[in-house]
């Protein structure tokens, strides 16, 4: 870095050259390159009439590949940028930089160094102005001139544009289309300055946004903890085995996503105002099929207040992931079954409830894949809506994707209308996320229900209501993997439905190999619930 005295001598010269450069661009006298998708053809400096169509917007990419993009806005000073580039090199990260034209014209060598390190240069508007209130003509000029500066001073051929703080407007989308750009880019997470969060809270937030197809954003000028945040992000991705790619590479991995009502099975769950009019259902209790067994389970959970409170605390992480109310996930209500079906003699189903981060769920999927086990997942849809790629990964692996309501309420506290709304909303979110019909399997949060709830559930289209008879209490963070294994094997019988969870901070994934090996050593096959149910008739 130059000393302050030298910088003060050079600054007026730099500003003068910068103003001359911009003046050239405004008057159309620049000798800028004629190539690139955003040049608008001949007369690049001339305004482009508003197109009839807008560019698309991407804030994440619809993919199940284990990749995400790290992106940066702005262009800090030379020392800050050199340190950032070294940190990215240390972690082997190739990132995407949205550069403001004014800064590139002022210090083009910095922009060239970013490109020389293998990073992607994209358009960041000329002046870094907030776009609120700017019309098409103003934003078209901002984008057009930014593209010209980047092409004039670097070898970049930008494909995307992002506003200074990731805002999106129709005017910007029209301007991007006029510039021949592929998309206006938002972000899954724009990480600003921390307030009073602990280090654990900071790492937890970042971990929750390290997702397949995610686009993470930092500002190189504003972010006070820039290098430490890059370190946290890199370590979170490494822990779950995800790779960073440039935005263009990530975009290329994305697939077409049907709108919800275009997905087969989207309308298989419907609200039914006549819910109490004798809808047929099947209640599956696993190996605990007798009334006495069911009553014993109900009594244990009705009186176990300490256990209930412990679980509520343990699954509070689910609220962070899904934004809803997490409650007891390990009870069974007592109600007369219209169809009391026994369990298959030598088969057991592993079932997983709720939602969690990629860091919690991807290791579970990896173990199941390693042992070639298909399982059943009852998903909390307010988490799915924030991370549809992960739900799709579950479905693509061949597992049942069932319904665990939208916000995880205790259904005995809901009206019939509220209950049905929870189920139908969850169904539609899940169907759109996985782009195929969900398994028509429902598990009530907490396992509690009233007799009249069963007909209301079935009336939505979810005729198979799935409980469980094996509960190793894996939701408790203090439970070790071995304790979870031992409890599962001690309770499991032919036809058992094993209750497990998708919660962060627990040891479920660590316990899975022991559970699978132990069940198989005892002669049990492991099948998804849908396969177990195929062997029964009403």
UniProtKB/TrEMBL annotation:
<dbReference type="InterPro" id="IPR050248">
    <property type="entry name" value="Polysacc_deacetylase_ArnD"/>
</dbReference>
<dbReference type="Pfam" id="PF01522">
    <property type="entry name" value="Polysacc_deac_1"/>
</dbReference>
<dbReference type="GO" id="GO:0016810">
    <property type="term" value="F:hydrolase activity, acting on carbon-nitrogen (but not peptide) bonds"/>
</dbReference>
<dbReference type="GO" id="GO:0005975">
    <property type="term" value="P:carbohydrate metabolic process"/>
</dbReference>
<feature type="region of interest" description="Disordered">
    <location>
        <begin position="313"/>
        <end position="342"/>
    </location>
</feature>
<keyword id="KW-0479">Metal-binding</keyword>
<keyword id="KW-0378">Hydrolase</keyword>
<feature type="domain" description="NodB homology">
    <location>
        <begin position="66"/>
        <end position="245"/>
    </location>
</feature>
<feature type="domain" description="NodB homology">
    <location>
        <begin position="346"/>
        <end position="527"/>
    </location>
</feature>
<dbReference type="InterPro" id="IPR002509">
    <property type="entry name" value="NODB_dom"/>
</dbReference>
<protein>
    <submittedName>
        <fullName>Polysaccharide deacetylase family protein</fullName>
    </submittedName>
</protein>
<dbReference type="InterPro" id="IPR011330">
    <property type="entry name" value="Glyco_hydro/deAcase_b/a-brl"/>
</dbReference>
């Amino acid at each position: 870095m130059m000393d302050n005295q030298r910088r003060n001598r050079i600054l007026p010269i730099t500003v003068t050259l910068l103003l001359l450069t911009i003046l050239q661009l405004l008057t159309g006298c620049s000798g800028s390159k004629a190539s690139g998708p955003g040049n608008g053809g001949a007369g690049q400096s001339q305004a482009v009439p508003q197109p009839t169509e807008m560019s698309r917007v991407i804030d994440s990419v619809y993919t199940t590949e284990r990749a995400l993009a790290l992106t940066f806005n702005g262009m800090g000073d030379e020392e800050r940028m050199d340190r950032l580039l070294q940190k990215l090199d240390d972690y082997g990260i190739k990132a995407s930089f949205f550069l403001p034209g004014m800064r590139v014209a002022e210090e083009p060598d910095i922009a060239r160094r970013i490109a020389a390190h293998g990073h992607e240069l994209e358009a960041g508007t000329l002046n870094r102005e907030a776009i609120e209130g700017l019309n098409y003509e103003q934003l078209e000029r901002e984008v057009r001139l930014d593209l010209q500066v980047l092409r004039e001073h670097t070898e970049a051929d930008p494909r995307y544009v992002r506003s200074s703080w990731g805002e999106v407007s129709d005017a910007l989308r029209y301007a991007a289309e006029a510039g021949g750009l592929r998309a206006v880019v938002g972000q899954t997470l724009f990480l600003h300055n921390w307030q009073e969060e602990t280090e654990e809270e900071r790492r937890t937030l970042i971990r929750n946004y390290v997702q397949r197809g995610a686009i993470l954003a930092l500002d190189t000028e504003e972010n006070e903890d820039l290098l430490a945040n890059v370190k946290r992000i890199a370590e979170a991705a490494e822990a779950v085995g995800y790779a960073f790619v440039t935005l263009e590479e990530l975009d290329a991995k994305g697939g077409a996503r049907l709108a919800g009502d275009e997905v087969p099975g989207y309308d298989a769950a419907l609200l039914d105002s006549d819910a109490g009019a004798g809808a047929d259902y099947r209640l599956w209790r696993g190996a605990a099929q007798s009334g006495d067994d069911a009553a014993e389970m109900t009594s244990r959970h009705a009186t176990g207040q300490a256990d209930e409170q412990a679980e509520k605390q343990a699954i509070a992480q689910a609220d962070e992931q899904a934004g809803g109310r997490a409650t007891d996930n390990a009870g069974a209500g007592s109600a007369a079954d219209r169809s009391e079906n026994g369990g298959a003699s030598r088969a057991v189903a592993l079932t997983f409830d709720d939602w969690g981060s990629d860091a919690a769920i991807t290791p579970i999927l990896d173990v199941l894949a390693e042992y070639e086990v298909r399982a059943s997942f009852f998903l909390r849809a307010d988490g799915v809506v924030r991370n549809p790629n992960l739900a799709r990964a579950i479905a693509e692996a061949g597992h049942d994707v069932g319904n665990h309501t939208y916000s995880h309420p205790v259904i005995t506290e809901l009206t019939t209308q509220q209950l049905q709304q929870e189920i139908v909303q969850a169904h539609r979110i899940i169907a759109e996320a996985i782009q195929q019909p969900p398994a028509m399997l429902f598990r009530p949060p907490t396992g509690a229900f009233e007799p009249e709830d069963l007909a209301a559930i079935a009336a939505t289209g979810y005729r198979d209501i799935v409980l469980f008879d094996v509960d190793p209490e894996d939701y408790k963070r203090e439970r070790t993997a071995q304790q979870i294994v031992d409890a599962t094997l001690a309770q499991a019988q032919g036809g058992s439905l094993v209750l497990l969870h998708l919660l962060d901070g627990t040891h479920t994934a660590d316990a899975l190999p022991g559970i699978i090996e132990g069940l198989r050593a005892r002669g049990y096959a492991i099948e998804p619930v849908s396969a177990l149910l195929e062997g029964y008739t009403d």
